[in-house]
Structure formats: structure tokens, C-alpha cells
Design a protein that fits this description.
Blueprint: H1 33-45, H2 51-64, H3 68-78, E1 84-88, H4 94-105, E2 111-116, H5 124-129, E3 131-134, H6 139-152, E4 160-164, H7 167-176, E5 180-183, H8 184-188
Parallel strand pairs: 1-2, 1-4, 2-3, 4-5
Helix pairs in contact: 2-3, 6-7
């Protein structure tokens, strides 16, 4: 084996003195006013909500077809309730598309955008419930259609989640700034509530 030179890695630009005798090696105590405010706000934000609020969030998550953890996570991270769903259904078989259309049609209290590769296979209930978009295969065209949908319904990207089937859909969700991305297999195969 060739001789390898050991190069020390420095993760922090701070080179403090080594701790003296009696030090437990833990981080320095931050007793500043800003740190106290941050700890207090963090504790209040992650305090379990009241029972009625938890039940309301759970019912809302069920209406959207989500689990409580995903819905509450978006609420805590983005600070907004989910009010729109985007479904990119490219690559699903006819049977999977029929199952997806049935679940999408059962979603209430939400604006829905659905993109399919062939409008002939779109279910009538899906066409009635959702704003349909024929997938052109271009990510930019899909992003522009999603942006128009959000503007038309006076929504925000942080209050919208996407269900997709490909990594390109994940990139589209990130580019549009959507709050949550779920894989179609996980969303449609989850036990219905």
C-alpha cells in the first residue's frame, strides 16, 4: 500500500483551549437572553396541543388522505394548513389509475390538480373533481401549470402538497416550493380512513 498522509480535519474555525480539570466535555452553557427566548419558544411550539385541536387536525388530515404526523409536520414547519393537492399520475397502470381516481374523488375540502398522460383514461369522477392537466413530459410546462393552478385558486405553495410517481415530480415539487411530497405508492396504498 502506498504511504497515506494523515490530514487533520477541522470542522469548526474556532480553536479554543482544551477543557481544564473538572470539565465534563459538554457544550458551553449559553445563558444569554436570546438563547433563553429561543428555548422558551421552542418548548411552546412543540408542546402537545389540546385534545380538541388534535382531533380537528386528525379529521382534516383524514379528509386530505394524509396521516396525522405528515399533516402536523407541515403545520409545524410551514405554519399553514394544507388546502390543495397536486397529483402527477404518470406511469400508473389502468387499475392503479382507477384506484387513484376513486381516492382523489373522495377528498373533500381541498383544491385538486391532477396531471395524467392520456386524458382518455381519466375517470369521469376525477375529471369532475380535479383541474385536469395533460402531461406533456416537460418539467417546466408542468411547473408552470402548477403555478397557474395555485394562482387561480389563490393558494400558497406552502399550503400545497404533491403526490407523484417519479423523481422528476420530486424535483418539480421542490422547484415550486410545495410543502410536502409523497410517493403515489405510499399515498394510494395507505389504509383508507
Amino acid at each position: 500500500m502506498p504511504f497515506r498522509r494523515h490530514i487533520p480535519v477541522q470542522l469548526s474555525p474556532y480553536r479554543g483551549e482544551s477543557p481544564g480539570a473538572g470539565h465534563n466535555g459538554g457544550p458551553a452553557l449559553d445563558l444569554s437572553w436570546e438563547a433563553w427566548l429561543w428555548r422558551r419558544a421552542h418548548a411552546q411550539a412543540w408542546k402537545p396541543p389540546h385534545r380538541e385541536i388534535s382531533l380537528h387536525r386528525m379529521r382534516r388530515a383524514e379528509r386530505l388522505g394524509l396521516d396525522y404526523k405528515a399533516y402536523a409536520g407541515v403545520l409545524m414547519n410551514r405554519g399553514t394548513h394544507l388546502g390543495a393537492a397536486i397529483f402527477l399520475l404518470e406511469g400508473l397502470s389502468a387499475h392503479e389509475l382507477a384506484h387513484a381516481a376513486k381516492k382523489i374523488a373522495s377528498i373533500s375540502d381541498c383544491a385538486i390538480f391532477a396531471s395524467v398522460s392520456d386524458p382518455a383514461v381519466a375517470d369521469a369522477a376525477l375529471a369532475q373533481r380535479a383541474d385536469l392537466h395533460v402531461l406533456a413530459g416537460d418539467e417546466r410546462a408542468t411547473s408552470r401549470a402548477i403555478d397557474r393552478f395555485i394562482l387561480r385558486h389563490r393558494l400558497t405553495p406552502s399550503g400545497t402538497f404533491m403526490v407523484g410517481t417519479a423523481h422528476a415530480h420530486l424535483r418539480t415539487a421542490e422547484d415550486c416550493g410545495l410543502a410536502l411530497f409523497l410517493w403515489a405508492g405510499d399515498y394510494f396504498n395507505a389504509p383508507s380512513n
